[in-house]
Amino acid sequence: MSDAIRGTGHGESAVPLSVLDLVTVGRGRTATQALATGVELAKLAERRGYHRLWTAEHHSMPGVASSSPAVILAHLAAHTSRIRLGSGGVMLPNHAPLVIAEQFGTLEALAPGRIDLGLGRAPGTDGATAAALRRTRTLNEGADDFPQQLAELTSFLDDDFPDGHPYARIHAVPGPVQGPKGRPPVWLLGSSGFSARLAGMLGLPFAFAHHFSAHNTIPALDLYRDSFRPSEVLDAPYALIGVSALATDDAREARRQVRTGALSMLQLRTGRPGLIPTPEEAEAYVFSPAEQDFVDGWLANIVHGTADEVRSGLDDLRKRTGADELMITAHAHGGDVRLRSYELIADAYGLPEDLG
């Protein structure tokens, strides 16, 4: 299965470049427009040689339209033919493992050999919404038994519960009971050490959320590599990192655009989630000293500027972390700005104009 995990860098990139699309919704735009931009981004990423495109589960956030990754991935699969598509991730404690196995078995049947199943342990939302999703009285209920949920999901995917198990006669369909035993590779996602250690112990590929937990990146990757045990899936560690990056034709414009994402995150972290602000709104916003400190810290971890500046920043990050793959997410108000950024980054690395 390692061939389904490890990618190849194109052009002058030493590692595969991939895309994380949060399907962001800017003020004055609609979810329909954001999802249409997602299709254009998937087509662009496939054409220019990006290795994979993932979308992430979020809930009760007006600024994103990615509450249902499996639905979005099915739509993207119908508009592409080569690029790998996956979840970055599905939040396992929010769902019954059998449901996830059925959803991703369906995706694998629709796009054989192109689907990744990335799994997260966090709720992808606030505590109250998590309780509504999980129908639990205790908001953190469901996360502590993540390893057991993962084992159950894997058994549904492989259709290999042992005789005598309560689920031994239950089959996730589409799935192996209907034919060949191909299934999506499982990735563990994280922003701290828990999933890093678990991924290493199980010999699974690991994706780290550098884009919102940069201070934990190197410790988590070190823990993953130190914990790694070879498995049927991988004989050596494979780690990608999600990185926020935005390239524009002018460095000053890049700074103007990324401030919209910083303001959006500030509003989310202070309990005021909304649509992604316009650049004009971000310019006009009067930040308190504490808010300015937050924004400055957030912007420090976004690689932004001209295409050459972004390439330099990405190359430096790869060297510092030893990441095997870079998954780029572009935060901006307008879909056209994000699409242009991925084109510019592809140009900077000399990726193919039209990968055949």
Can you walk me through this structure?
This protein is α/β, with parallel strands linked by helices and 356 residues long. It is 42% helix and 13% strand. It has helices at 31-48, 69-78, 97-110, 127-134, 146-158, 193-202, 217-227, 251-269, 279-284, 289-299, 307-321, 335-348; strands spanning 17-21, 52-55, 84-91, 115-120, 186-190, 206-208, 239-247, 303-305, 325-329. An eight-stranded parallel barrel has the order 1-2-3-4-5-6-7-9, surrounded by eight helices. The longest helix is centred in the C-terminal third of the chain and has 19 residues, at 251-269.
Features:
356 residues; 8-stranded parallel barrel; 12 helices; 42% helix; globular
Quick gist of this model?
It is built from 12 helices and 9 strands.
Please render the helix and strand layout as text.
Blueprint lengths: L16 E5 L9 H18 L3 E4 L13 H10 L5 E8 L5 H14 L4 E6 L6 H8 L11 H13 L27 E5 L2 H10 L3 E3 L8 H11 L11 E9 L3 H19 L9 H6 L4 H11 L3 E3 L1 H15 L3 E5 L5 H14 L8
Parallel strand pairs: 1-2, 1-9, 2-3, 3-4, 4-5, 5-6, 6-7, 7-8, 7-9
Helix pairs in contact: 1-12, 2-3, 3-5, 6-7, 8-10, 11-12
Summarize the amount of helix as a percent range. 40-55%
Helix vs. strand class: alpha/beta
Largest sheet: 8 strands, parallel, barrel
Number of strands: 9
Strand order of the largest sheet: 1-2-3-4-5-6-7-9
Helix/strand order: EHEHEHEHHEHEHEHHHEHEH
Please state the CA-atom Rg, rounded to the nearest Å.
Answer: 20 Å
Q: What fraction of the residues are assigned to beta strands by DSSP?
A: 5-15%
Count of alpha/pi helices: 12
Distance between the termini: 23 Å
The rough form would be described as: globular
Q: What are the low-pLDDT stretches, counting only 5+ consecutive residues below 50?
A: none
